[in-house]
Amino acid sequence: MPVYYVGILRNTGRPAVELAAEKKLDSFNFLTRPKYSEFLDFTVGLCAERLEKNYRGEIKMAGMDKTGDYRFQAYDYKGGICGVVVTDANYNERVAQAILAKSLEFFAGKYSESAYTNLQPSPKGSPPPLAMPELKEYIDKYQRPEDIDPILRIQMELDETKTFMHKSIEAMLDRGEKLDSLVAKSDNLSSQSKMFYTQAKKQNSCCIVM
């Protein structure tokens, strides 16, 4: 039940700006890993910039291969930032949300709003502008959701009374927008990644029909 991504983004405008993040994609094929990484960045940004105020919950995104759906957990936090965690379909929702809460609280304690208000997106292929090595610690430690430290367990218990929301990525798009169109127009996706997306989607459709 892997965690693929943990990130903090500024979502006060479009595009959303990734401020600090960590990925773990070693479960993907080495040759296709860069394309998955690009689409992960694209979809995380799309989720972040279209989050409703105070939204906290899941955003469903259909998988691009036979591994199944991915779970995008998002948390619109105070101070113009949000957090996104991407896991496989079976990862525990409350653990993912607790990781988000822990990451956002740590980030807000480490950086004031003035530190990121005017930051621009990092060049493609470059790391996010703000350092937060704790995210690597979280993404490594919580690959197995049962390995929970006491602080995170308390956070989960506090969240037991919360009802998290659920949306599909398509439901977050503006009226008339289509995900395929946004992919085609994106400057952040290479032509190879766009072709990979199209081919994978067709392959998935065939699998579903069969």
Explain what this protein looks like in three dimensions.
- The C terminus is likely disordered.
- The chain has a six-stranded mixed β-sheet with strand order 2-1-5-4-3-6, sandwiched between helices.
- It is α+β, with helices and mostly antiparallel strands.
- The longest helix has 19 residues.
- Helix 1 crosses helix 6 and helix 2 packs across helix 4.
- The protein has a single domain, classed as Beta-Lactamase.
- The chain contains six helices and six strands.
Short description:
The chain has helices at residues 33-49, 93-110, 134-141, 150-158, 179-185, 191-209; strands at 3-10, 17-23, 56-61, 70-76, 81-88, 165-168. By secondary structure, the chain is of the alpha+beta class. The chain has one domain: 2-Layer Sandwich (Beta-Lactamase).
Strand content: 15-25%
The averaged pLDDT comes out at 82
Count of the separate structural domains:
1
- The neighbouring-strand order within the major sheet is 2-1-5-4-3-6
Q: Biggest β-sheet, characterized? A: 6 strands, mixed
Query: Quick one: CATH class?
Result: Alpha Beta
Keywords: Coiled coil, Lipoprotein, Membrane, Methylation, Palmitate, Prenylation
Domain Longin: 7-139
Family: Belongs to the synaptobrevin family.
Membrane topology: Lipid-anchor
Task: Name some characteristics of this structure.
single chain, 210 residues, Beta-Lactamase, alpha+beta
What's the layout of helices and strands?
Layout: E1 3-10, E2 17-23, H1 33-49, E3 56-61, E4 70-76, E5 81-88, H2 93-110, H3 134-141, H4 150-158, E6 165-168, H5 179-185, H6 191-209
Helix pairs in contact: 1-6, 2-4
